[in-house]
Amino acid sequence: MEIGAHGPIVLATGVWILWRQMPSMLSEGTRGHLALTILAVAAALPLYVVGRAYDLISLEAAGLYGFGLAVLHDRVGLRQMLKNWFPLFYLGLLLPVPGWLLDQGTAPLKLLVSAMSASIVEPLGVPILREGVTMTVGPYQLLVEDACSGLNSLIGLIAITLFYIYLLRNAGWRYSLFLVCLIIPVAIAANVLRIVTLILLTYYFGDAVGQGFLHVTAGLFLFAVSLVLMFMIDSVASRFFKPQQAA
Q1: Distance between CA 208 and CA 220 in Å, rounded?
Q2: Which of 31, 130, 181, 194 is labelled catalytic?
Q3: Residue from 143, 226, 235 nearest 185 by CA
Q4: Which of 6, 79, 108, 131 could crosslink 156 through cysteines, CB 3.0-4.6 Å?
Q5: How many CB atoms sit inside 10 A of residue 241's CB?
Q6: Which tens digit of pLDDT belongs to each residue from 17-33?
Q7: pTM of the model
Q8: Cα-flanking dihedrals φ and ψ of residue 208, to 5°?
Q9: Is 130 one of the catalytic residues?
């Protein structure tokens, strides 16, 4: 899944949740403390200005998000924001991951998915030589980039799984935690499958096919596969967690 591909889904579902909760927030809430609102605006605006001036999308988005929280606090108060924390946290997943954090977070994932992918295709008779995140497949050389390492699909899966858990209103916290813990292995498995597919496409059909249109669409396709896998696991596991939910 490419960077930000989960954005439209998270934005649409997050706004939907917030729109559903807004009437009760407005009716039960009171105006927030002016000093806290001013403090939040004073912290958010410099982030936006610096991010805008230096083309730092992470700071710019954080500034806009913080300003939105400040406006909401002014309307409904801190108590209602804490009571209805989920859509605010959920929409926060729209914030782009800073480049330096992306580099650090993807380094071990790139090594892991590269090693797993190479170990899968090698028994299939594909000549492959791996050095770190660089794989030589026949006459072709492939590099596992950040977009293929799993972090981007991991963020998207976290967001959509949290939304799915939110819809399961009667799910206990143990079962919800169980689903959250499955996000990382499912995301890694999906990305290994993606890289294996790209290796096979490149080896049998050439570099143009592997790095072309299929390379772009494979991420979204496997993100959908990851979601289906999560739903299947939920369908099976929910039968065993029913006693805990009823307790």
Answers
A1: 19
A2: 194
A3: 226
A4: 6
A5: 17
A6: 999 999 999 999 999 99
A7: 0.74
A8: -60, -40
A9: no
